[in-house]
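name: query_chain
kind: protein
chains: 1
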Amino acid sequence: MKMAKAKEMTMEDLLAAYGDVSVPKEGDMLEGTVINITKNGIWLDLGTYGTGLVVGPETMDLGEEIKVGDQLAASVIYQETDEGYVLLSLRKATREKVWEKLIRIMNEGEVFKVKPFDANKGGLLIEYETVRGFMPVSQLSTEHYPRVADKDEILVRLNELVGQPMEVVVLDVDQGEGKLIFSEKAATRDKTEELLSKFKIGDKVKGKVTGVVDFGIFLNVDGVEGLVHISEISWDRVDNPSDFVKVGDSIEVQIIGIEDEKISLSMKRLQEDPWLKKVKDIKVGDVLKGEVSRITPFGAFVKLPQGIEALVHISELADHHIASPEEIVSDGKKYDFKIISLDIDNHKLALSLKDAGDKKQNKKEAKREIKSEKKEPEKEKAEPGKKEAKAEKQAASNSAEATSDKKAKK
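structure:
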């Protein structure tokens, strides 16, 4: 085909040949048949609009995919060149089609692969064909989620994912706002649910530590994310979970809960509970001597001989109303307490002072302590009086001796 002949045609020639037709405007979308592919671009037969030339960098990518005879849509960027053809671009038309495709695959829940081209502290930047989108950190799968608190470390972890193929779904798409959100977590949901179906509460499993935070330890258990809460790490008090494990460790845990594609785990339940051993011989109604270890506005904590701490509420200190526990008990002092409740599951003992067997003895001890505290200042007050009486007695004695001496001299 001789392209020169097409280039010599003008809009006037076309109008004469095809009658009264509208002239394409800038931005119009036109469809044409590919009639030639050259280094300058892709030539299209636009019918009544004559010949069009598609230009732009995107034609380089399409050069190997299309062939003469294919239908192609493009947008007008110039109505007519000096040579008489319409200048076209694929970018707008291609983007329109991509948005349409994205809406379709979102509605169908299609899973496909992408490669992030960049990262920031909030997530990964992804380009799907000609449309750029974003995948927030929260939408990463368990395998890729950065379980670290430091924001700089999060960015380091995310940069490691740049260029790596990831299976995702379209979570949200809005062409008007230019919004495109991807999710890896949603893409693996079916797989996660399948894995979760194999677990049950009470199972002992092994997991790899993926993160250690203030409130607990994250594990990857056969592809499923699990959390050992700080309260489930040890029977003893835990101040810092990092004292027990580090990222990369493999540990054995017990499943104590399954919910929302996650499992709750426990380390301490695979160990003997020392508290149970300490209270095995204790029962409600027993009276034990305990030492007051802490006094609070609502009561007092008591150390029992078994090495456990229990609470005696302010209402259990006396038969009458008191404003403060210090009216009845003193820190560091020992009293007889009666066990009025025993909560094995929550490791709690409740005590009563007023209901202890030897009420009289407890009252005597409490009064004795109050008196001993009052006795010291009274003693101090009494001292000056005694000294004055002694001084008066001494003065009287001295006076008597002086009178006796005078009589003797006479």
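note: Confidence is low (pLDDT under 50) at residues 1-6, 378-382, 406-410.
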